[in-house]
TrEMBL record:
It comes from Prunus dulcis (Almond). Residues 144-164 are annotated as: Disordered. This is Retrotransposon gag domain-containing protein.
Length: 164
């Protein structure tokens, strides 16, 4: 295996596994684009005829759209589905533009800021709730226990015995 083959394998794997993970769509796309450019430099495209070249370029672009859409965060599932429903699948730059339109639309609806930022804030709030709720419940239980202990020591029992 040549050094180029090893590097190509590594880059191809990286392009498949790269995910947005709360970053902006722009930053995520730029990362993928840099990987794709390096792949293109290491693997020159040589074809015997123009038809083969055009067909191979379309396959390559479709694979790149799949990489891009596959790495997007869940808030983009709707636009992801709309892009895949198109026939033919648009080129990567067009898919990127469609996702950016959705990001802008969602930002306007949600009151500014990118969806990636909102996803990150939601994750932070959820993590905080996972910490705060158990602490709050533990503190509440301790407070109730103390209050019950004080109540039983300070006042006599109000239960009356019935003779009967």
């Amino acid at each position: 295996m040549t050094q180029n083959s090893s590097r190509l394998f590594q880059l191809r794997r990286q392009s498949i596994l790269t995910c947005q993970n709360g970053e902006s769509v722009k930053v995520f796309y730029e990362k993928l684009h840099a990987i794709w450019q390096e792949i293109d430099c290491l693997r020159p495209h040589e074809y015997s005829c123009a038809d083969d070249g055009a067909r191979r370029l379309k396959e390559l672009e479709t694979d790149r759209v799949y990489d891009f859409l596959g790495g997007l965060d869940p808030p983009y599932d709707g636009v992801h589905s709309r892009i895949l429903a198109l026939s033919p699948v648009p080129p990567p730059l067009k898919a990127y533009a469609m996702v950016m339109e959705e990001d802008t639309r969602q930002s306007a609806i949600l009151g500014g800021g990118s969806m990636a930022l909102k996803v990150d804030l939601a994750r932070q709030r959820l993590a905080l709730l996972r910490i705060v709720i158990p602490i709050t419940m533990t503190a509440f239980k301790r407070t109730v226990k103390r209050a019950r202990g004080r109540a039983s020591r300070t006042r006599p029992s109000r239960r009356r015995k019935f003779s009967g």
